[in-house]
Amino acid sequence: MSDPDLPSDGLSAPKTGIIRRAPTGPLPALDEPRTTHIDTHSHPESQTTYIPRARPQAIGGRAAVRPKTAAATAVFAILSGWATAVIATDLITGWWASDRLFCVAVGFLTVVSGAALISGLIALLLRRRMARVLIVVGSVIALLIFASLFVAGAKLAPVVYAIPALPVITIVLTLLPATARWARP
Question: Which stretches of the chain score pLDDT less than 70?
């Protein structure tokens, strides 16, 4: 019985699906390189090979916006979020044994405030319009956290009574017209 892959004469190599690595004959020489995209004909309406570069043009309009108030807003938002997180963490660790529901509520408000402030900061640095709303929402929630501390009658260090000034300053800086101009590219 004969193998179907072997030739009938038995002297040639069997047919396989492997591609040879070396060519068996001479490489064909091309007369001239040909492309399909470049026309070699010289037609009077054909595009030339010289295409001039675009030159920048000054466009009149608004004066340059300086980021001073936006930078101040970012700094105070960072400080406000950090101070709120520190005070909330201290409150939660101190009151966990006595009032867990209150601690969970303060923790939730802290997470929402932090998320709004971080998102607002990133959006402000990217000059997005929604940035101001997010920063104001995060600062108002931080003020709610501090209000809950005072309503609950927590005994706090005297410096903590000054910390709610940070979210208030953040809100004021966020609502300034210069910050609004910065957030509108």
Answer: 1-24, 28, 30-50, 58-64, 185
Q: How long a stretch of residues is the chain?
A: 185
Q: 144 CB contacts (<8 Å, ≥6 apart)?
A: 109
Structure tokens at 97: 């044994």
The token pair at 169 is 């300053």
Q: Please list, residue by residue across 124-147, b when 16 or more beta carbons sit within 10 angstroms of its beta carbon and e when fewer do.
A: beeebeebbebbbbbbebbbbbbe
Q: Say how far apart CA 95 and CA 46 lie, in whole Å.
A: 82
pTM of the model: 0.63
* DSSP state at residue 158: G
| Residue 39: burial class (beta carbons within 10 Å; 0-12, 13-18, 19+) | exposed
Cβ contacts of residue 38 below 8 Å, gap of 6+? none
DSSP, collapsed to helix, strand or coil, labels residue 167 as helix
Q: Is 94 helix (H, G, I), strand (E, B) or coil?
A: helix
